[in-house]
Amino acid sequence: MTIPGGYILQPRIIENSEVMHDAPVVREVWFFLLRRVNHQDGSRFCRGENFFCLDDIQEALHWYSGYRKEMYSKPQLTKAIKRLKQRGMIEANRTARGLIIKIINYSYYQDPGNYRQYENCKKIYGGNGGGNDGGNGGGNGENTTEETEQHEINTGDHCLLHGNIPDGGNGKNVTEATTEATTEATAEVHSKNKNDKNVNNEKKKKGPKKKMTPPTEQEVIDYFLENGYKAETGKKAYMFYAAADWHDSRGTPVRSWKQKMIAVWFRPENKAPQRPTKGYDADEELQKIREEEQ
Predict the structure, then answer these.
(1) Which helix (H) or strand (E) holds 61?
(2) What Å distances lie between residue 265 and 50, 138, 235, 274, CA to CA?
(3) More confident residue, 131 or 128
(4) What is the predicted pLDDT for the residue at 194?
(5) First to last CA, the chain
(6) What span, in angstroms and rounded, lies between the C-alpha atoms of 234 and 225?
(7) Taking 70 as the threshold, does the pLDDT of residue 238 lie above it?
(8) Where are the alpha helices (DSSP H) in the chain?
(9) Residue-wise over 3-34: b if at least 16 C-beta within 10 A, else e?
């Protein structure tokens, strides 16, 4: 029994295309456009193109979350269409009421004759692959439902859904050229994955971060005095971190003790009293403070 509404062809090689790693809305819009463009030339639009408006696309792609109806926003749909244009998969021209969208190379990709094993399918199932029994399916005859099913099972490679069509140069047919292109693309993906794995391994080989050498109590006090802060505050700071094996209040190891002093302890209330500058010897005063600490 013939399935009404016709059909569209979807090459399995799309798994290796960039669109499969775009946002889900991009893929949904792509397959929606494939289903809705004309399968044959019409009075207003040619095969592979049609008129669309965002409201219709929103409604067609809606879904339900419980009892709540969800749908993509118009900015999301606009961005998805723009991405398909950037990928070279469609052409889109604005009109006063919507968009005229054309699928690039639609006739080539929707022709079963361009797929491997098609001739064997014709011998097994019959049919000439022409015509269409209705709907926006994609220009194929009554018996081609079985043909499509069979050749999709046997087809493991085909060119991507965008870009240039292989011309089968150097005496090669389209199938051979396509197989080579697919092999090269797969090898490139494997090479990239291998390089990424090597980079990750190099990162893992790097040793742990160098641990800070804790300062002495006198070094901390001197640092406070040199920057105009109280010696007793410096001593308090040293005791605080030394008791915790140089971890802060959150348990995080201290990487730079000077930065920690500046960030936490160098506050206005910890400033040392101002000394008169006239006849004032800073080195002598510093020596007195150290003697008092001893």
Answers:
(1) none
(2) 70, 74, 11, 18
(3) 128
(4) 63
(5) 103
(6) 8
(7) yes
(8) 24-36, 54-60, 74-86, 106-109, 118-125, 144-154, 174-205, 217-226, 231-243, 257-260, 282-293
(9) eeebbbbebebbeebebeebeebbbbbbebbb
pLDDT at residue 29 in the model: 93
C-alpha distances in angstroms, 27 versus 77, 79, 99, 155?
A: 11, 12, 18, 21
Task: Using CB atoms within 10 Å of the CB of residue 162, give its burial: 0 to 12 exposed, 13 to 18 middle, 19+ buried.
Answer: buried
What are the φ/ψ torsions at residue 148 (nearest 5 degrees)? -60, -45
Average pLDDT, the chain: 75
Confidence at 20, pLDDT banded by 50, 70, 90 = confident
245-284, pLDDT tens digit by residue?
A: 998 888 889 989 999 899 999 988 888 887 655 555 666 7
Q: Which long-range contacts (CB under 8 A, 24 or more apart) does 163-168 make?
A: 163/88, 165/105, 165/108
- Which tokens go with 139? 């220009």
Is 18:87 a contact under the CB 8 Å cutoff?
Answer: yes
* 8 Å CB contact between 271 and 229: yes
Average pLDDT (174-193) is 58
Considering the chain, what percentage of its residues have pLDDT values greater than 70? 63
CA 219 to mean position of chain CA atoms: 50
